[in-house]
Amino acid sequence: MPSRPITALDAGGDRLAGGEQKLQKIRGQDLGACVESLRSRYGEQGFKILNHAEVYSEGLFNRLWGNKEMEVQYVVLQKPLSFEAEKQKILNITGKTAVPFAELDKKLGAYGELLNSILEKIAPGDGSHPAITKIEGILEKNEFTGGFIKKISQRLKKELPLGDLEDEALVHRTVLDWIGAEIRIKQPPAIARPPRVVVLVGPTGVGKTTTIVKLAAKYRIQENSGDYKPLVRIATVDSFRIAAFEQLEKQADILGFPVHKAETPGDIPQILAMDEGRLDALFIDTIGCSPTDYEGIAAMRSLINIPHITPETYLTVSASTKASDLRMILKNYESFDYKAVIVTKLDETSRPGNIISVLSERNVPVAFVTTGQKPKQIEDPSPITFLRKLADFNIGREYFDDSAPPVPGGT
Predict the structure, then answer these.
(1) How many Å apart are CA 76 and CA 80, to the nearest integer?
(2) Is the pLDDT assigned to residue 358 strictly greater than 90?
(3) Cys-Cys link to 281, which of 196, 218, 395, 402 (CB 3.0-4.6 A)?
(4) Please, which residues have CB within 8 angstroms of residue 357's CB and are 6 or more apart in sequence?
(5) CA gap 175, 345 in Å, rounded
(6) Cβ–Cβ contacts within 10 Å for residue 62, how many?
(7) HSE-CB for 265 with a 13 A CA cutoff
């Protein structure tokens, strides 16, 4: 039977024989709940139960569904004391007069008003300091998740003294430090022996094709040594999307990278063997599957399953993906055993709280960030990369200077 509040019902003037008590009724979930309510109202000896029975709850639907509750009939043996009567009772016990008590009331009233004004400043409404309430609003505006906002609020309440909460710049700097510490950065692994194989996976529309060309260009620039240019190839397993190969070939051709199709599980090993061990790096673009397309994900896994080689696999996600979708993407692509994410299109959002929140929640690091369509618009990120995008924090721009000490982050 569903729980419902205790209700008192007037019995309409029924009197007990030989007395003036009026018969009253009360309803509740069960007998115990009714008795507890009566005790709190009249005290242990202030009432007497005459009868109790299960009755249908009020309302047509309750009757149709057979919902019942307990009805108790009782009489009041003594009225509850008023506040003034309670004060007088205390005075009688202590042997003091009511005059000092009245004076004490006046003094306590004055102190009470002062205390209330202080408490209202410290903890208005929901019990939060105004500085904490403001931070919560800023985080919400930047689209941090509710769980992340709650974690920051609890840290502020627990770790910052009242005096520090009055210093807005200090509060904002502290919160930015904490947010920065939640952003983990993944450095690319050292490759002892070529070839280096990099695979990008992720849903449709996040910019994998553009990003794979950027990664190849970035690698060649970093690995150039004197007159030697690293031998780099690009492969795609995306033979389903219209003009996918042509799009990739056009972008790669500008930078001088040969592009290959991989349509069967044996194609990738053949591409790796083309240069008789001289290949430095192979970058593989994949099909943009929906995160719920489990069959497509499984088929793609078989295409990039390379014997004797463990590729660097990165999950590619757009910075503007909403938090609920991002959680699903991170979970459904776990079968690829990705070690980090590449956040694309960071330039297209001014509210990166969603990506920071979910990556922190899932403890996933960031390896690269892209900020445009040009080949050079890819970077090794730092926590500051994301913190710069946050709006409404009242703090000097020197905080975001690359020459400043880095905000604590992951490794």
Answers:
(1) 9
(2) yes
(3) 196
(4) 144, 145, 147, 148, 323
(5) 25
(6) 16
(7) 7
Cα angle 350, 341, 147; round to 5: 60
Torsion of CA 228, 223, 271, 237, to 10 degrees: -140
> Which amino acid is it at 207?
G
* Of the candidates 312, 17, 100, the residue with the CA atom closest to the CA atom of residue 191: 312
Residue with tokens 């003037």: 13
Residue type at position 266: G
Distance CA 377, CA 202 (A): 19
74-83, 87-96, 164-173, 175-184: the lowest-pLDDT one: 87-96
Backbone phi and psi for residue 103, each to the nearest 5 degrees, phi listed first: -65, -40
pLDDT in tens, 61-113: 566 666 788 898 888 876 555 555 555 554 555 454 444 544 555 555 555 55
CA 107/CA 97 separation, integer angstroms:
17
Ramachandran angles phi, psi of 369, nearest 5°:
-135, 135
| Residue 211 scores a pLDDT above 70 | yes
18-43 pLDDT, tens digit per residue, is 444 678 888 888 888 888 888 878 87
- One-letter amino acid at 349 equals T
Q: Give CA–CA dist 47/77, Å, rounded.
A: 5
Give the list of residues 6+ apart from residue 21 with CB closer than 8 angstroms, or none.
15, 75, 76, 77
- Which tokens hold the place of 271? 């591409």
* Residues 240, 287 contacting (CB under 8 angstroms): yes
Q: How confident is the model at residue 256 (pLDDT cuts 50, 70, 90)?
A: confident
Q: How far apart are CA 174 and CA 141, in angstroms?
A: 18
Residues 6+ apart with CB under 8 A from 220: 229, 230, 232, 255
User: Using N-to-C axis directions, what is the helix angle for 168-182 and 130-141, rounded to 10°?
Assistant: 50
| Cα–chain center distance at 99 | 57
**Whole-angstrom distance, CA of residue 294 vs CA of residue 368:** 26
Residue 380: count other Cβ atoms within 10 Å of its Cβ. 14
Q: Where are the beta strands (DSSP E) in 312-363?
A: 312-318, 340-344
Sign of CA dihedral 402, 407, 410, 411: positive
Q: What are phi and psi of 165, to 5 degrees?
A: -65, -20
